[in-house]
Automatic annotation (TrEMBL):
This is HTH crp-type domain-containing protein. Pfam families: AbiEi_2 (PF09952). Transmembrane segments: none annotated.
């Protein structure tokens, strides 16, 4: 899958439609198969992901429908409301990178409007480099926090980063073109960790962090989490607590936990509620739980990036102290 296909797959999953990746049955280079829950059980549909600067016009959309049939789904970076109205009138199922969608199948109906696209293909410009889009940043994160992973297979890297194998392939090619990676599998080498880390922090703050789901709740104070929370598989401690853990001078006033939505286990075990002032932030984990092994805290690089993204002056100052302790050249 390419960048657009990955984003569309994520959007469809949020709408209750699961992708079948790498099953070898794709009907074209930009197609993938999805499973739709319908009245009689499930059915399969082909998603045609088209990276275009402009949506299909009505006449082209008619030809697309005739060539694809009623069960196909048209996927584009962006579908304006007016164009969506036209597609629905033509009986075309569609979805864009922001989640604007019309899916009309027996016993399964979705109609979403008004969402901002996550990807844009501007006329006359190329797509965002593979290693700096949200999916590629997940791969780069794995390489940065576990440099030994550079020699792993594409399949294993995809599992650790929770992305498709195609995303790993495209990301490694881009990293090689940009001088971050040298060689092929078995002899691949990560070059200049600091330079890649700087690029990753910028990309994380700009493109990945805003896309992560999160929920603010009331719960135990930060010292409880650092002292008593040991369920590593359920949640990894980040934010100010991680900064303090790594030696930065900070008394945190809230706790960030990275885990998989909808966070039922953490909410139950820590007795988190919506009542009162929020002291706990549950944030979507964007890596495999096995990446960090037995670490209770997120890696220093993520704690640093989160401090820059959060806008808290205390945490930003602590992040700079952490960078000094870690001797990161890019943060000097």
């Amino acid at each position: 899958m390419d960048i657009l296909s990955d984003e569309i797959s994520n959007v469809l999953r949020e709408l209750g439609v699961e992708s079948q990746r790498g099953d070898g049955r794709d009907e074209g280079p930009d197609d993938f198969i999805v499973t739709i829950p319908v009245r009689t059980g499930t059915m399969e549909a082909v998603v045609d992901a088209k990276w275009r600067s402009q949506p299909l016009g009505p006449a082209e959309a008619v030809r697309w429908r005739e060539s694809r049939g009623g069960n196909a789904i048209l996927a584009l970076p962006s579908i304006p409301k007016q164009r969506g109205d036209q597609y629905r009138a033509l009986g075309i199922n569609y979805v864009d990178s922001g989640g604007n969608a019309f899916l009309n199948f027996p016993g399964f109906h979705v109609h979403v409007e008004g969402r901002k696209p996550r990807l844009r293909a501007n006329r006359g410009t190329s797509a965002q480099p593979a290693s700096t889009n949200p999916a590629g940043l997940k791969v780069a994160f794995v390489l940065l926090v576990a440099p030994e992973s550079i020699g792993l297979s594409h399949e294993r890297l995809a599992a650790l980063a929770q992305v498709s194998k195609g995303t790993v392939t495209n990301t490694l090619i881009d990293l090689r073109d940009r001088g971050h990676v040298f060689g092929e599998r078995g002899s691949r080498t990560l070059i200049d960790w600091d330079r890649l880390a700087q690029d990753w922090v910028d990309g994380y703050v700009r493109d990945l962090r805003p896309r992560l789901k999160e929920l603010e709740l009331t719960g135990p104070q930060p010292d409880w989490w650092t002292r008593d929370w040991v369920d590593i598989a359920a949640g990894t401690i980040g934010g100010g607590s991680a900064l303090a853990h790594f030696g930065a001078e900070l008394v945190p006033d809230r706790t960030v936990l990275y885990s998989d939505p909808p966070w039922r286990e953490i909410r139950r075990d820590a007795r988190l509620t919506r009542d009162g002032q929020a002291q706990v932030i549950l944030r979507e984990r964007f890596w495999s739980a096995g990446l960090l092994h037995d670490d209770r805290f997120v890696p220093p690089l993520l704690a640093y990036a989160d401090a820059l993204a959060g806008g808290d002056p205390r945490e930003a100052s602590a992040a700079q102290k952490l960078a000094n302790l870690q001797q990161w050249a890019f943060a000097r």
